[in-house]
Write a structure and sequence with these properties.
elongated; alpha/beta; six-stranded mixed β-sheet; binds fe (ii) ion; 13 strands; seven-stranded mixed β-sheet; about 20% strand
C-alpha cells in the first residue's frame, strides 16, 4: 500500500515561507522542479515527496480542497511533464575568428580591386613579399572589384561580369604561381560581398546553393585558396586583421585611418579598405601599447568614380613568432618602388 504523505497546506514556518518564495520566483517552472529547489534550499530539512505535496498545495493541484481554496493566489492549472512555455532556441550563428595558425612571415595584399588593379604596384608588392620569403599570403579583401554586380550606377561599357570573373581567376592563378608553396587565404571584403548581395536580390532561390558560392565561381578549391567570409577576424599570431568594413560606418578619421580604427576598436588591429598607409600607437595608463595599422591599396589610384582621393599604394609583411608575438612592416609603394619609411 502506498505511503500517504500528509502536509498541512498552510502550516506556517520557515519551510512554508520558503515554498511560497520559490513558487513566486519561478512562476513558469513545473511542480517537480520547484519541489527539488525547495529540498535544496531547505538543505534536506524536507524530503522530495513532502516538498512536492507542499508545492502542489500552493499551486492548487493537490486534491479538491486545494483546488477550491488555493493558497495566496498562487494557483495554476496542472501541467504534464514537459509541458510549459519553452525559451525559443536562439538562431544566432557563433562569430568566431579565423586563425592563420602560422609562425613566420605573412604577406598581406589588400584592395587589389581586379581588374582595376595597378600592375606596377602589385608587381612591386609581390616581389617584396617574395624577397621576404613569406610562407602565408593573405588577400585581405577587395581582391576583386565586382563592378558588374555593384548596386551603384554602372557604365554599361564595363558591365561584363563573366569577363571580370575570368580576370579575377587569372589573378588568383598568377598569385598561386608566384607563391607555389604558400598557404593562401582570401578574406571577403565589401566588394566580394557584392556577389552574395546580388544573388539575394536577383536569384534568392539559388543563393544558398554551394554551387553559387564565390569560392566555387572563382575555383578557389583547385588553387588551394581558402575563403574567409562573414566578416570574420583573421588572426596572424596575436594580431587581429580586418578588411575594415566590418566596423560599419561611424567613427572614422579623415586625417589618420589607423587612429580612426583605434578610436573605434581600442585594440591592436591591422586593416585595409581605406586604401591608405597609416599607423597609430597609444599606451594606456599602465604602459601597455595598442598599435593600429592600415595598409595601402594595389588598385588604380584615379578611378572614374573618385579621381581625387587620399589613397596610396602599399602592402604589409607580418612576422609572427612562437607564442604569437609579431612585428609589422607596413610599407608604401611609390613609383614602383617599395618605401619602408
Ligand atoms: Fe577597397
Ligand atoms: Fe573595402
Amino acid at each position: 500500500m502506498a505511503k500517504q504523505i500528509s502536509v498541512k497546506r498552510s502550516k506556517p514556518g520557515p519551510i512554508a515561507d520558503m515554498a511560497v518564495d520559490i513558487v513566486r520566483r519561478f512562476p513558469g517552472h513545473p511542480a517537480r522542479s520547484l519541489a527539488r529547489k525547495l529540498v535544496d534550499e531547505a538543505n534536506g530539512a524536507i524530503g522530495l515527496d513532502a516538498a512536492r505535496c507542499r508545492i502542489r498545495h500552493l499551486l492548487g493541484q493537490h486534491g479538491k480542497e486545494s483546488r477550491e481554496r488555493g493558497d495566496g493566489g498562487l494557483r495554476r492549472a496542472a501541467r504534464r511533464p514537459g509541458e510549459g512555455v519553452e525559451m525559443p532556441k536562439s538562431q544566432a550563428v557563433p562569430w568566431t575568428v579565423y586563425d592563420l595558425e602560422t609562425v613566420g612571415k605573412v604577406g598581406i595584399l589588400s584592395d587589389i580591386h581586379c581588374p582595376y588593379h595597378d600592375d606596377t604596384a602589385l608587381r612591386a608588392a609581390v616581389e617584396h613579399l617574395q624577397e621576404h620569403g613569406v610562407s602565408t599570403l593573405l588577400l585581405n579583401g577587395d581582391f576583386a572589384d565586382f563592378y558588374s554586380v555593384s548596386r551603384h550606377e554602372k557604365n554599361p561599357k564595363h558591365r561584363n561580369f563573366l569577363a571580370e570573373i575570368e580576370q579575377v581567376q587569372q589573378l588568383l592563378r598568377w598569385l598561386r604561381e608566384q607563391f607555389p608553396d604558400a598557404k593562401i587565404v582570401a578574406k571577403a571584403g565589401n566588394h566580394e560581398e557584392r556577389w552574395e548581395k546580388w544573388l539575394w536580390q536577383h536569384a534568392p532561390e539559388l543563393s544558398a546553393s554551394p554551387i553559387m558560392g564565390l569560392d566555387n565561381w572563382l575555383g578557389l578549391g583547385e588553387l588551394g585558396i581558402e575563403l574567409v567570409a562573414d566578416k570574420r577576424i583573421v588572426m596572424a599570431g596575436g594580431l587581429p586583421i580586418l578588411h575594415g568594413h566590418e566596423k560599419g560606418n561611424g567613427i572614422s578619421s579623415p586625417v589618420n585611418q589607423a587612429r580612426g580604427a583605434y578610436m573605434r576598436l581600442h585594440h591592436t588591429v591591422l586593416e585595409g579598405h581605406g586604401h591608405r598607409t597609416s599607423t597609430h600607437s597609444e599606451p594606456d595608463m599602465m604602459g601597455t601599447e595598442t598599435v593600429c595599422f592600415s595598409t595601402g591599396c594595389l588598385c588604380d589610384l584615379r578611378p572614374a568614380y573618385a579621381p581625387l582621393n587620399k589613397w596610396n599604394h602599399g602592402a604589409a609583411v607580418v612576422t609572427v613568432r612562437e607564442g604569437g608575438e609579431f612585428d609589422v612592416e607596413n610599407f608604401r609603394i611609390a613609383s614602383g618602388r617599395v618605401r619602408t619609411s
